[in-house]
Design goal:
Distance between the termini: 153 Å
Mean pLDDT: 85
Low-confidence stretches: 604-613, 615-632
Strand content: 15-25%
CATH class of the largest domain: Alpha Beta
Number of helices: 16
Oligomer: single chain
Largest sheet: 6 strands, mixed
Number of domains: 5
Length: 632
């Protein structure tokens, strides 16, 4: 009985243990399945489908190959949100990258009086020694500091072109910082003057490769302006600046706003410079500009601290007196006003004596009118020949000993002013100097005004009408018409613009030469050019003339399609009339079949006598003036 009881007790315990073991195994299986399912679902939601999950009891194993370390860590974090992070076992691998991303290649170049420093990372394939040799050549006797590193990766597209451009720019910039990468070059530099700044901006922009981005930040020191000059004119209701100087950006803006209130339209500029006579320069300028507008017109010239106001002829005396009084009472203390109200000329007055200096587009100078003595005539003639060339000056002025005492100074100043123009006329009278013409200098009006004020005195009156034309601006690098003609010949050289046999259709081989010509002619701008066609002597003369004209027209059309401004171009067919070789040989006939470009120069215009000279001639008072070749 006791034995059976013992077996009963043992059996009970055994059955309980077996039931517990089965229950535990079932519970563990449920936990494993729940953990695996939960982690897999969360990984799928995060887009980590490459990861696999396995479980062993409470442990959760992450298996798979992650594309990178960051993605592997993301998978661990995702699993840790579902189960205790301590239960997550990392058995993931990281995919080995076939290629690493190339580094960022860039170079920083610094140049100053001490030498050149270059720092950055360049591709190993870049010829480092050649690059440093170029820097040493640019640096001359100064030092080149090499802080370059190299990486063995292919150079990115555009790298070599950007580096060549930066090195070329460095030659022109002795004080500069240049940053280079494959797509962009950034240049910060100090230039010697405003003219140098404009010239460099144009040259650097022109040399830039088409696919390269360029950031330019060029600065120039402010010039010393002597005399410090402002000249504002209202003529026929149209206001304009002949010269404008300011000592600060604020002063410049105030002066330009004052001019705008008088009706001045379009873009106007004031040169910022040193040498202002008073910090209240802008105050004085605002006052006289606004009062000139109230006066109805005229001119006002401020030269240092002297102000010369000239009213329009016929201005009401009461209005003139009021305006002058208001200006005098409101001007800052340092400034002095001289005001003039011109009188109407007497009807019997034949006009004042005058001296006229004319500069033609071809560079020919004619001097006519009156000079005060034979010595003055010799002096003026010598001065003009020294300025314009001995073979370019024709003097046809007569001696008049009744002229004012300062006449010689005024005429010499007029010739000096003429040197500021490409072509134009300077007319000197006892009361005025009138300047008109064309120039390639944006500051020409201001420089002429300062020159006349310095030479003739603060109370001098003058009238400046100078037109700026880009094609004459040397700082823009635009070739002159004569230079264009010479460069066309140089481009063509031994080559020819060819056509299909007995046709005006351009041959395919003409493409390159036409492309080169188009690049040049775009820079030359709107200049008069004749495109002339020539043939050999084979065939009828009329047919050859027509064929040569058609071929010239084909060249013109080809240039037009290349966006060359051909509005001033003309075509002419010369046929067989102007051979340059023997038509009796094949080589000679080949040479005669050609296209030529010729600059059309203006015909010289005969000098026209002035009204006063004509009156004196009619009265027998003076010698007949000589004819010249200059333009009025």
């Amino acid at each position: 009985m006791r034995l059976s009881s013992l077996f009963t007790i043992v059996g009970t315990f055994f059955a309980a243990a077996l039931i517990s073991l089965i229950t535990a195994n079932f519970s563990v299986g449920m936990i494993e399945n729940a953990s695996k399912s939960g982690v897999l679902n969360e990984l799928d939601r995060e887009g980590l489908t490459w990861a696999e999950v396995d479980t062993n009891g409470l442990q959760v194993f992450l298996i798979g190959t992650a594309p990178d370390e960051a993605t592997r860590f993301q998978a661990l974090s995702t699993a840790g949100r579902v189960v205790d992070a301590a239960r997550v076992i990392d058995q993931m691998l990281i995919e080995e990258a076939d290629d690493f991303a190339p580094p960022y290649f860039s170079v920083e170049i610094l140049r100053n009086d001490a030498g050149i420093s270059v720092i950055g990372l360049i591709p190993a394939e870049t010829d480092r020694e050649d690059l440093l040799a170029q820097f040493r050549e640019i640096a001359g006797t100064t030092e080149v500091s090499d802080l370059l590193d190299a990486a063995d990766y292919p150079a990115p597209d555009g790298w070599d072109a950007a580096l060549r451009y930066a090195t070329s720019a460095l030659r022109d910039l002795p004080r500069s910082q240049i940053s280079v990468d494959a797509e962009r070059v950034s240049i910060k530099a100090m230039t010697e003057s405003g003219e140098a700044k404009q010239r460099l901006e144009t040259a650097l922009a022109r040399r830039k490769p088409d696919d390269l981005r360029l950031a330019l930040e060029l600065t120039a020191p402010r010039p010393v302006i002597t005399p410090f000059t402002l000249r504002f004119v209202i003529e026929n209701g149209e206001p304009r600046f002949d010269a404008c100087s300011a000592d600060s950006e604020e002063a410049r803006d105030r002066i330009l706003r004052a001019a705008a209130r008088t009706g001045l339209e379009g873009k106007s500029t004031c040169t910022l410079g040193l040498g202002v006579p008073s910090r209240r320069w802008a105050d004085a300028a605002e006052i006289v500009i606004s009062k000139l507008h109230e006066l109805g017109g005229g001119s006002v010239t401020i030269t240092n601290a002297d102000i010369n106001l000239v009213a329009l002829e016929g201005t009401d005396q009461t209005l003139f007196d009021r305006i002058v009084g208001e200006v005098e009472s409101s001007l800052p203390e340092v400034f002095a006003l001289h005001a003039t109200l011109p009188k109407k000329p007497d009807a019997a007055d034949q006009g004042p004596p005058e001296f006229v200096a004319t500069l033609s587009p071809e560079g020919e100078v004619q001097l006519r009118g009156r000079l005060s003595s034979e010595i003055a005539r010799q002096t003026v003639d010598s001065f003009a020949r020294a300025r314009f060339g001995s073979n370019s000056v024709y003097t046809a002025a007569r001696v008049d000993e009744t002229l004012p005492g300062d006449w010689a100074v005024r005429t010499l100043a007029g010739i000096e002013v003429l040197g500021q123009l490409v072509n134009g006329v300077v007319t000197v009278t006892p009361d005025n100097v009138k300047v008109s013409g064309k120039t390639g200098n944006t500051e020409a009006s201001a420089e002429i005004a300062r020159l006349l004020a310095a030479k003739l005195g603060d109370e001098a009156t003058f009238d400046i009408k100078v037109e700026y034309l880009k094609k004459y601006d040397a700082s823009l690098g635009i070739p002159t018409p004569e230079e264009c003609e010479a460069q066309i010949v140089e481009i063509i050289g031994d080559r020819k613009i060819t056509f299909e046999p007995s046709s005006a259709t351009l041959d395919a081989s003409a493409k390159d030469i036409l492309d080169e010509l188009a690049d040049l002619l775009k820079k030359c701008g709107d200049i008069p050019i004749e495109v002339g066609g020539h043939t050999d002597s084979q065939g009828r003369e009329s047919m050859n003339e027509e064929l040569s004209r058609d071929r010239a027209q084909s060249v013109l059309e080809a240039l037009r399609t290349r966006l060359v401004p051909v509005a001033s171009y003309s075509v002419k067919g010369y046929g067989e009339t102007q051979p340059i070789a023997d038509n009796g040989t094949e080589d000679g006939r080949e040479a005669n079949r050609r296209i030529e470009f010729k600059l059309l120069r203006p015909e010289p215009i005969e000098e026209v006598t002035t009204t006063l000279e004509q009156v004196e001639q009619d009265n027998g008072a003076g010698a007949a003036p000589a004819e010249g070749t200059g333009d009025e």
